[in-house]
Protein 1
Amino acid sequence: MSPRTSEKFKEIRDIRQQQLKDAAIELFGMKGFAATKISEITNKAELSHGLFYHYFKSKEELYVTVLIELLETLIEVIDEAEEQSESPLMQLEWLTDVTHSGPLKDGVYRHILIMQALYSDHLPAETKENIVERYRSMVIRIALIIERGQITGDFIEGDPEELAIYHLSLVHGLLLSNARKMVPIEVSVDKVLRQLKPCEDRGEHA
């Protein structure tokens, strides 16, 4: 096999594998792990059922793979946020804006999938611990931004990790609320971060 042919083969393989991952994120997010069948994933990806096993040994392996990759991507996005500016406030503004940009449903499925995994009881203990540890790492990274912002006076006093969890909870809630389309809103970065700002920065009276 020539180098060019080998490279083309790898490109096709990567594309098909990503198609399976994308389909899995949506279906796992909508239906949960147990209710999702491999045949549904392959149908969604428009690939043959047999082809699935060229890329993943089982549904469980695919589930864990997409979860780990999602969490690693979120941590990479935090890295990008820190590269945007030296200001902790601007870093968190950028991160919040990115979280709510792009196709809404994709963001919703990603967040639902992560939340499901954190509270699931079907994953092996070691796998669950790995996922929880990566999520906690993300919380700590955001907490460090908040802590630096407290030093500069951009954010309110309080336990940085607790404030990071408050922030993430609001982000998750807004994504889910808009996904239901009952009372859709245009997400405002300023309003999302208002809970973290001192009273004078919010135009309020202390």
Protein 2
Amino acid sequence: MGLVSLELDVGNSALKWRLMSEAGRLQGGRIASSPAALRLLLDELSLEKLNDIKVASVGSIERDEPLMSMLAASGLPVKLAYSQAFCGGVRNSYADTSRMGVDRWLAMVAAFGVCGGACVVVDAGTALTIDIVDGGGVHQGGYIIPGVAMSARALAEYTGRVRFDGADKQSLAPGKDTESCVHHGKWLAQYGAVQAAIALAEAVQGPSEVFVTGGDAQGLIALAGNYARHWRYCEELVLDGLAPVLASC
């Protein structure tokens, strides 16, 4: 089996993990993004068989401190990825690369590594992020939009009379009661944003590969129907960027 790494993508609401050997992926999954859930995961894995732990996190230093302390206590080398000016043929558009979420950077590096050309990278998670990379690997910029759950929560918290239950209803059809108006509306906003971003990108750089990842990616793809027939769903796109980014850090 050779050297094995534990790779972690620590998001705002979920932590994605996998074990990678020189031969490829061994196993993986998704847990809550919390110290308790990570502790259970580490207890279940055979740490003595691991070579190191590779981490990408979008959390603040304060939020990540308990997680990082737990990983450090494992005794294994912990390698933390960060956004860079250049990696894997991709050039970052941010003047201050530390301000870019590392998940976005890893996803772009991974996507460009697959297609080697113009692409639009969509991460439908707690937030919906959309990034555009041209054929030369230059990041043309992106968008950050509240995700579906965050959109509904904002309506519940900041409006007085928009009341609805918590059951998700995935559809783009016009709603005929408040519940369906809210739930259909949040998905329409996601789909509309992605569709508009792709159109804007392709108007400038021509046909572009579309990569989609994140917890709500499959729901978005299902709603997009035939429009999404050429999209690439990559469940572990952020994790796929860990190795090349860390190799160049």
Protein 3
Amino acid sequence: MRSTWLQRGGAGDLIVVFGGWALGAAPFAALTGPQDVLFVEDWREFGALPDLSGYARRTLLAFSFGVGAAGHWIAGYGDPFDRKIAVNGTLAPAEADHGIPPEMVEATAAGLSEASFARFCRRAGMDGAPQIDIADRQAELRAVIQRGRAPDVRFDRIWLSKRDRIMPPAAMEAAWAAQQNRVEWIDAPHVPFADRPTWEAWL
């Protein structure tokens, strides 16, 4: 687990982004706003976040595999967040009915190459592919499979993309059945942020 400040200017509000697998901070590059933004990635193992106590309001935005990671992290470290937003992910990311079938996740790991990752990025709706460490990202996928379903977490808003080609929309709908009153469907790919270019629009 690695954390990087995307914006840090002494704001009263903080957004902590739990990112998806292998895409880095690129999906969020165009988002603007006055908030401080801490980006967290790499779900091979978990660790503590920096001290967040100085912020008046702390919001979690969990994206893709970061949603399941958020559930596990909160179970282990507590919940410091005033609001929690989920985007195109579930608490069971490597599960056939509520995420991606684990055999497909394993196949992605086994066949991972720069070429296959570039295809993945196109399917996700990215314009390009970030640099990738093949061995580390294989290990991350296998850690997600082995970790399994996260404990239940209540989110304040859940964004799901109708045109998601990474996380199956039907599986996401089933996964969030108990929180369906918080779900908002959008006509977007897996990486949906281009159409709403401010942080506040997602919160």
Protein 4
Amino acid sequence: MPKTIRELADELKVSKQTIQYHYQRLPTKNQQKDSQGKNMISLTAERIIRDKVAKPLVAKGQQIGGKKETKDSKENNELIFTLRREIEELKYQLDKQLATKDQQISSKDRQLDQLTKLIDQQQQLQLAIVAENRQLKEHVQKLSGFVGTSKSNQKVQSTENNSIQNKGRDDKQGKKKVPQSGNIQKDAPKNKAHKNWWHFW
């Protein structure tokens, strides 16, 4: 569909004079007019004008872009330099912190080693104390066994001593007593009854 000069200028974002200039330089076979006598641009003419207008626009854009790129590249270089400095500073601080942490960790390791040694020593002392307590208990049991046997021996000895003393008394009493009746066998069981140990208590 044919376009007017104004419509094409608006599309290409250029002035109406620019389109008019290029339109007048077209071959006469590509120039058209409508019924009212206005210039109309056919598809072929539009393509030719677009090519001619677009080339200078691209060149201008590249020049403007080149200036922008130069400015942007300077800003980018400064930004890159600043970022590198910050990265180096952060690395330095990180290395410093890591060194501090390494020292703290090695200090904690030494403390753990000392605590482990102390715990080992404490366990050895406890084992030694338990063994000593066992030996003391066994020794006390042996001593109590000796004391028990010596007490029972003393009881037996005191019982024997008492029975010997009582026997001696009985013998003395037996000599003094003369059986009046001639029956000695009747008197003998009485003497035996007096010699039993439960009578001495």
